[in-house]
Specification:
The structure is a single chain. By secondary structure, the protein is mainly α. It is about 75% helix and about 0% strand. The chain is built from seven helices and no strands. Helix 1 runs antiparallel to helix 2 (about 15-30), helix 5 runs antiparallel to helix 6 (about 110-130) and helix 5 packs parallel to helix 7. The termini are far apart.
């Protein structure tokens, strides 16, 4: 494997992980034939390690209540995510069944469900931020980032199609 690519792939992992496993992993990658799929696999594993660090084996994690996985299991964290996915599903199903409505069409049940799902997220997200930002700011910002991405994914088709 190319030396520059190898160093770049190692930098994708968190510092604590590199300090613990870096030399061994570098030797492993040098011995492997490499290729596109191996590179993608290493990048996916690095992303997984950043989101769900292996803290049990002696690695020092964020110092908070636990990895982002713990925080994402809190109801105030995953409910907005589920609501955004539900709103996106409502839009996709409505578009696939009924097609794009004509301009100035009256709002149907799907539009009202979408609006409710999007509006009801706001107090839950505010509660999550109020509760978790002081305790674990880095992890909470990660969860808030995921929530924001899912909200944008639910809003994008509505904005793009002018629904």
């Amino acid at each position: 494997m190319n030396r520059a690519l190898l160093r770049w792939l190692l930098r994708a992992y968190p510092r604590a992980w590199r300090e613990r496993y870096g030399e061994e992993f570098e030797a492993f990658l040098q011995a492997s034939p490499g290729g596109l799929w191996a590179t993608l696999n290493v990048l996916c594993a690095a992303l997984h390690e950043r989101w769900f660090p292996t803290g049990k084996e002696g690695l020092v994690t964020s110092g908070g209540p636990g990895p982002i996985q713990f925080l994402a299991k809190q109801p105030s964290a995953f409910l907005p995510m589920v609501m955004s996915l539900g709103a996106l599903t409502v839009v996709v199903v409505s578009l696939s069944v009924f097609g794009v409505p004509p301009p100035r069409a009256a709002a149907d049940a799907a539009a009202h469900i979408w609006q409710l799902l999007m509006a009801l997220q706001v107090p839950v997200i505010v509660w999550f931020a109020f509760r978790w930002l002081p305790k674990a700011p880095r992890l909470a910002m990660g969860v808030l980032g995921i929530q924001a991405i899912l909200i944008l994914a639910a809003v994008a088709p509505v904005y793009i199609l002018g629904l």
